[in-house]
Design a protein that fits this description.
This protein is of the alpha+beta class and about 160 residues long. The protein has one domain. The protein has five helices and seven strands, in the order ααβββααββαββ. Strands 4-5-6-7 form a four-stranded antiparallel sheet. Strands 1-2-3 form a three-stranded antiparallel sheet. The longest helix has 30 residues. It is elongated, with a radius of gyration of 25 Å. Keywords: Membrane, Transmembrane, Transmembrane helix. InterPro entries: N_methyl_site, Pilin-like.
Amino acid sequence: MKRQGGFTLIELVVVIVILGILAVTAAPKFLNLQDDAKKSALQGLKGAMDGAAGIVYGKAAVEGKDSGDSVQTLDSGITVLYGYPTATSAGIGASVTGLTSDWTSYANTSTSPASFVATFSSSSITDASGVTGTSCYVSYSQATSAAAASTLVVDSGC
């Protein structure tokens, strides 16, 4: 009888197992999924802020508090300016559920118009400049007489 040349089933299974182990240990080095996840989370927060600002503007319009250049408080306790949430924890912070508890967020009064910045939870960040220093945050700009409120994602440092 002539011997067949080739691999046995056990040899093939061992090679497949070794390749699987190599793939599991090497794949994270080639695929940086954490950065993509952070950027996507920031985009989600931006969407939540935009949606909340739109809803609050609708509530302010119903209550007749969608104009005027002074800060007003809605029946729900949210502070608004020109109908949009203010850039404070009582404004946009109260409008977005979990913004002040799940994220590190601060009012940034050094900008004009005032803004509210939020990034991933960190105990080492103690003010708005610490948030912006991460280059991985969402910024909500308060409405002005000339423009509606707006949000911006900065993800160059994620």
